[in-house]
Design goal:
Number of strands: 4
Structural class: mainly alpha
Helix content: 55-70%
Shape: globular
Length: about 400
């Protein structure tokens, strides 16, 4: 697989230079190494090959992303940001807020439904159906607050360590919130944010992260199996083919190499603001690439307007990510925000979330900054510029 061979040196250099697995270049390149590996493994399921043109196109976008990521991170250094913020955070207040927001969100979402296992299962299906058909209600703003409060609470534990036992009920509470949200994106964002803040983000940490992620995939692949006689590994392969391999192959066949491109959701938020006709969902029409899929990667939205737009968007994305990644080493608001925004890098292979979720990112950015203003900030003058 040519893309894997092209990306391995890039990911190695990115990690070697930064020693940080959340370096945007390492995140994006390693993400597509994983995707390419799954495509290779599931080749007997997929009815289309991963064509060389598509691999070179993706590689070109990743290279451009990487170049502008370097520009963004270099801008922080050139402006002489050499201090690391440290703040006095009231962890008890954050804990109360986190529990209050989480319980409020859960109660509002499940109010009016039964409490038996079957009733809960049916209610979650109904909630999900309503979300897909009508969009999320105002209660989702609780979730935006939960993201931010959880990030600051984790930082407060690093500043002022507390008993670890309290994390167990908190994680169970957040897991319940994620389940009730019926959103995979919300679940992954909480998972990624937690990993970014609480670990040292070295290579061994990302390996543990990957193993845990695969364990979750394995668990779900086992759960979703019906009464067929397929083996566990066949079920896992099919599951990964649907959720990991199929978006890239569908993008290749129905956008990159197609003369009749369907549509794009890239400007959806601007259409909403101007009162234009807005698609009901970000998902595409279902297509068959060996497995059914209705998600065609971020590139699908870009290619609709042409290859040049795709390169421009990836350059812009890279610059923003490089800037935020470096600022996260200096400002705590940036640490919280980037821990969530990193989702847009890791899941580029799955869907476009930089622009289509622009409202969410603006909400999270504003809340991150506002929370940082609630605390007394002091500069740590011992911070060395070389550490940035």
């Amino acid at each position: 697989m040519y893309l894997i061979l092209l990306l391995l040196p890039l990911s190695f250099v990115a990690y070697r230079v930064s020693r940080d697995t959340f370096n945007p270049v390492f995140l994006l390149s390693s993400s597509y190494i994983f995707v390419s590996s799954i495509i290779l493994w599931a080749a007997d399921i997929l009815i289309y090959d991963f064509k060389l043109e598509a691999q070179l196109f993706i590689f070109g976008n990743i290279v451009l992303f990487s170049i502008f990521c370097c520009f963004g991170s270099a801008l922080v250094k050139m402006n002489g940001f050499i201090y690391r913020e440290s703040i006095k955070i009231h962890s008890n207040l954050l804990l109360i807020l986190l529990i209050s927001f989480s319980l409020s969100y859960i109660l509002v979402r499940v109010s009016g439904y039964g409490v038996s296992f079957q009733e809960i299962k049916d209610s979650l299906h109904e909630i999900r159906t309503e979300d897909v058909a009508d969009g999320h209600s105002a209660v989702q703003y609780f979730f935006t607050l939960i993201y931010i409060v959880w990030g600051y609470y984790l930082i407060s534990r690093k500043i002022k360590p507390t008993k670890k036992i309290i994390l167990i009920p908190l994680m169970l509470l957040l897991l319940t919130v994620a389940i009730v949200s019926t959103s995979k994106q919300a679940t992954f964002m909480l998972f990624i944010s937690t990993f970014f803040i609480v670990t040292n983000r070295k290579l061994k940490s990302i390996i543990a992260f990957a193993i845990l992620g695969l364990a979750l995939f394995s668990f779900f692949s086992f759960i979703i199996r019906t009464g067929d006689n397929s083996s566990f590994w066949d079920a896992l392969k099919t599951y990964l083919a649907i959720y990991v391999a199929s978006p890239t192959i569908a993008m290749q066949e129905f956008y990159l190499l197609s003369s009749q491109i369907a549509d794009s959701n890239l400007l959806r938020i601007f259409m909403k603001l101007t009162g234009g006709a807005v698609p009901e969902t970000l998902h595409r029409e279902f297509v068959n690439v060996g497995v059914p899929t209705n998600v065609y990667t971020a590139y699908s939205d870009y290619i609709y307007y042409g290859w040049i737009v795709s390169y421009f968007m990836m350059a812009l994305h890279g610059f923003i990510c490089g800037l935020l990644w470096k600022l996260a080493k200096i400002y705590l608001w940036a640490e919280v925000f980037y821990s969530l925004f990193a989702y847009t890098i890791i899941f580029t292979f799955f869907h476009e979330s930089l622009v289509t979720s622009l409202s969410l990112w603006l909400q999270l950015l504003i809340l991150s900054v506002l929370f940082s203003l609630c605390y007394k900030v002091k500069k740590n003058a011992t911070r060395n510029k070389s550490e940035i």
